Amino acid sequence: KILHWDGTNKTVPNTQDEDGNYIIDTAEKLAWIVGQTDASLTRGKNYKVADDISAFILLPESIGVTAEGIMACTTAAETKAYLDSKPSRTNYPWVTKTGTVFAGNFDGNGVEIYGEVGHWDKGGPGIFGMVAQGVTLKNFAVKNSYIYKTDNYMGAVFGGVNATENGTVTIENVVVSGCYFWVENKGDSRY
């Protein structure tokens, strides 16, 4: 099943499985997790994408981004061209916010996440913005996304680690492909 975020709604995941994981079974629940600016709301919690979800699209169909269109891109250049053909990136709804800090653990359960558009002035630089040390992010892919900033702290998965935390960040089985990155005054790169 492929789920589109509607561009506005964010829903707190409150259903847990038998292992204590908060289940992400809607795009609005994923949007809530990655849009948190208060690390205490996700700290120590485990989140897992439901078994029947294969992909999330983080840009709404209402701006012309279709699952078929964004998923068909095979290179960063194609992703950039596809997203540039839509309304101005400054008008996109931002799933992350400036100051986002994710402090939980995330198991994507093999999901692919498409269409993240990140800008530090509007939202976090990556799916999770910033992360707290000690988190684990695993079993997902970030594909065909567009991240741009005015400095170097950026990434498809997260833009940096909150320096006030102690510990490590664990990344397991995470793939990044077809993503276009632009750093103002420094140029572009493609992954």
Structural overview:
- It is a single chain.
- By secondary structure, the protein is mostly beta strands.
- The chain is 12% helix and 32% strand.
- The chain is built from three helices and 14 strands.
- The protein has helices spanning 27-34, 67-72, 76-84; strands spanning 2-4, 22-24, 46-49, 55-57, 101-102, 105-114, 117-119, 130-132, 136-143, 146-149, 160-162, 170-177, 180-183, 187-190.
- Strands 1, 2, 3, 4, 6, 9 and 12 form a seven-stranded parallel sheet that branches.
- It is globular, with a radius of gyration of 15 Å.
- It starts with a strand and ends with a strand.
Write the layout of secondary structure elements.
Blueprint: E1 2-4, E2 22-24, H1 27-34, E3 46-49, E4 55-57, H2 67-72, H3 76-84, E5 101-102, E6 105-114, E7 117-119, E8 130-132, E9 136-143, E10 146-149, E11 160-162, E12 170-177, E13 180-183, E14 187-190
Parallel strand pairs: 1-4, 2-3, 3-6, 4-6, 5-8, 6-9, 7-10, 8-11, 9-12, 10-13
Antiparallel strand pairs: 13-14
List descriptors.
191 residues; mainly beta; 7-stranded parallel β-sheet; 4-stranded mixed β-sheet; 12% helix; 32% strand
Short description:
The protein has helices at residues 27-34, 67-72, 76-84; strands at 2-4, 22-24, 46-49, 55-57, 101-102, 105-114, 117-119, 130-132, 136-143, 146-149, 160-162, 170-177, 180-183, 187-190. By secondary structure, the chain is mainly beta.
Radius of gyration from the CA trace? 15 Å
Largest sheet: 7 strands, parallel
Strand content: 25-35%
Number of helices: 3
Residue-averaged pLDDT: 81
Span between termini: 26 Å
Low-confidence segments, given as residue ranges, are none
Structural class of the helix and strand makeup? mainly beta
What global shape is seen? globular
**Into which percent range does the helicity of residues fall?**
10-25%
Oligomer: single chain
**What is the number of strand segments?**
14
Order of helices and strands: EEHEEHHEEEEEEEEEE
